[in-house]
UniProtKB/TrEMBL annotation, chain A:
It comes from the Bacteria. It comes from Liquorilactobacillus uvarum DSM 19971. It is found in: Cell membrane. GO terms for molecular function: ATP binding; ATP hydrolysis activity; ATPase-coupled transmembrane transporter activity. Its main location: membrane. It is a peripheral membrane protein. This is ABC superfamily ATP binding cassette transporter, ABC protein. PANTHER family: ABC TRANSPORTER ATP-BINDING PROTEIN BC_2655-RELATED, HEAVY METAL TRANSPORTER. Residues 6-247, 302-536 form the ABC transporter domain. GO terms for cellular component: ATP-binding cassette (ABC) transporter complex. Probably part of an ABC transporter complex. Responsible for energy coupling to the transport system.
TrEMBL record, chain B:
It is found in: Membrane. The chain crosses the membrane at residues 25-55, 67-87, 116-137, 249-268. The keyword Transmembrane helix applies. This is ABC transporter permease. PANTHER family: ABC TRANSPORTER PERMEASE, PROTEIN ABCI12, CHLOROPLASTIC. It is a multi-pass membrane protein. The lineage of its organism: Bacteria, Bacillati, Bacillota, Bacilli, Lactobacillales. Keywords: Membrane, Transmembrane, Transmembrane helix.
Amino acid sequence: MTEPIISFKNFSFQYESQSEKTLDNINLDIFPGEKVMIAGASGSGKSTLGRCLNGLIPQAYPGKISGKCVINGKELVESSVFDLSFDVGTVLQDPDSQFVGLTVIEDIAFSLENDQLSQAKMREVTRKWSKKLNLEKLIHRSPQELSGGQKQRVAMAGVLIDESKILLFDEPLASLDPASGAASIELIDQLAHKQNLTVIIIEHRIEEVLKGGIDRLVIMRDGKIVANDTPQRILQQSLLEKLGLREPLYLSALKRAGVNLAACQNIDQVSQITESQMSRKLTAWNDHTQLSRKVKKRSTLLDLNELSFAYEDASPIIKDLSLEIKKGEIISLVGRNGAGKSTLSNLITGFLSPSGGSIKFKGQDLLKMSVKERAQHIGYILQDPNQMISKTMIYDEVASGLRLRGLLEDKIKERVEKILRVCGLYEMRHWPVSALSFGQKKRVTIAAILVLKPEMLILDEPTAGQDLKHYTEIMTFIEKIQWENDLTIILITHDMHLMLEYTQRTVVLNQGKILLDAEPAAVLTDDETIKKAYLVRTSLFDLAERYKLPSATDFVAKFIQTEREGRV
Amino acid sequence: MNSHFLIGYNDKDTFLHRLSGSTKLIGFIAFSIIGMITYDTRFLLGILTFSLILFKLSKISITEVSFVIKIIIAFAALNLLMVYVFAPGYGMTIYGTQHMLWRSPENYFNLSWEELFYIFNLFLKYTFAVPLALIFLMTTNPSEFAASLNKIGIPYKTSYAVEIALRYIPNVQRDYRTISLAQQARGYEISKKAKFWPRIIGNAQILLPLIFTSLDRIEVVSQAMELRRFGQGKRRTWYMEKQFGKADYSSLIVIFLIVLAGVALFNVNGGRFWNPFKH
């Protein structure tokens, strides 16, 4: 039997600043050439485990270690980050923040420079790797200018160049659009085979990673390993759902249809999954479930008419775009990076002025209002709450919009306290913002906008990087305030789960135009749109197609409808 | 999309673009030092002409740098005015003669040829270095900056800090924009419509989130660098470093000769000042 390349024995770790162990008695062996996924909710210890693999623990994050951890023959406690960097290559979560070079080629060569290689040698090695990762045409560009998928490839080249045998990915999908994410997973798979690598992927988006095929799934909770098995066996037991993680969508659908997962073969691939009763059960469920088509009469809230926008001397970013948004709708705005999503929201909020066309809000001309005036009608919430919060205390943060509008302090108090109650922050009103979790900060930023009583909210990636629990928490909250205040909401997102589960209408942007404006289920089953907008089709669609259900779109819609009914 | 408020590298093919960044940096520093020390008007006029010729050779268009030049002119003018206001008689003290243009030396505010001449020398000092600095900044590939600094003896960690700062300017600009827009939507006026104080306060509101965002970035990037062995060795090599060529060596000789001429003039003049008033 081969020796494990990574071995944890009764390993525990406690950060210096924490009172409890973050990793608790870990026993894990990973063998050469294996592809292992480590999943778990935020705070489960999966990132900490990753930091042990590359030596950031204990060097950059000191703490108490007990037990044994051996990586490619090196004892963790006796090795520095530098020593381990020859064995383990790490690709961090956000490639944007780990680029150090001004151009792609310099970034790829970075570790070679530190190894003091000669320029000639560096040129030779970087040429080889930029070819392997198909970056040859990009080497003199700035890494920031690249698309998400290209960035990921640059980051990978910069690490693979060390020829280390172990590759560690820390949430590689978090900052990518769906299509680039799928491409990355495929690339990782190819490289692993070609270079004979051991790959460890830390992710909570399990379905996407499974698609690339992995050998083992390790699930962590509260610092312990709670499952460590082949994906097949874990999925058959429905362990993901039991542990509060997101199950692949097609499995949830099969369960709804009454298919016994334990009896399924090839359960980790939607294109190959089989079970003797599956076809019959799916067809029966599909026939039996009726779509309720409740059409509510709604008044128009926002009316964009032939809107255009271009920077000076450049091709237009928004071209003759017309869109009508009804009161009370929840809309998802999707499209690849650069499709014009943020430009469109900036035009609505007034950060940019259109070069042509009109924007009307309840019949009023929005273009005549200042940014500040528009903010009273339409609130805009950034992806990163840290970029929005400018006060140190929660109460002050929520009150600041009203104070700037010159309201009297007792009037402000009344409104702020009311909003804080709505948002479940009332008890914490005298807390400093820094004591809050990401989700709570998000709620503070929403509260600070809601206090201005807008009728419409634009949220940019409200759930990016959140695990299922926090995702559900944030979205339940948004649904609740939407319902209570009859808000109209636009969600800008890459997350197709979010779009399917929580929005009624999807607007797909491509090159400054609306490519498709339809129900989410229709968008994610339309191959042409999916391709152009860098989306990925939902696994439900594959299921419907394989079992020849009459309408894939209806099947997806029916599933989403039953899920929603289950939630209410 | 790149904003033009910063001057930056412009890829052209001239003699100066082909020179190694280290040579240009050495030239800039050497000329600046000798030029700051000497008050020999002939020498200053000489290097001013020299640097203007180089500027012409570098094919930098005036429009690219007009903004920076305007700022420098404004500051230089203000500075020269202040030099006069604080010590109108200083020129006479230095040169030891009194050739009056306006009022007598007993008045606090007076004007002499000596003072004018002194201020003219200062003016030359301020101006000759500007084309040289612009040449260094605009004909040196930023990727080569760090390598150049390292080559003239600055530790590589410090040199790399310069490169990282350059690398992060666009990120910080983007963060600033995003945060500023979000704050404006809340009601902070930082546009030109707002009065001075509300505008300052509005801008200060951006600072706190900007600092926190930047600190997060620093932590991530320093880890990313460590994971790729930055700081392991005593030295590092540079992918973008330009090797010294013939042109570099001859330029260094020219630089050396000019500096030598400057030093020689100290002897001829018997000090830092060239005094045309004494006969």
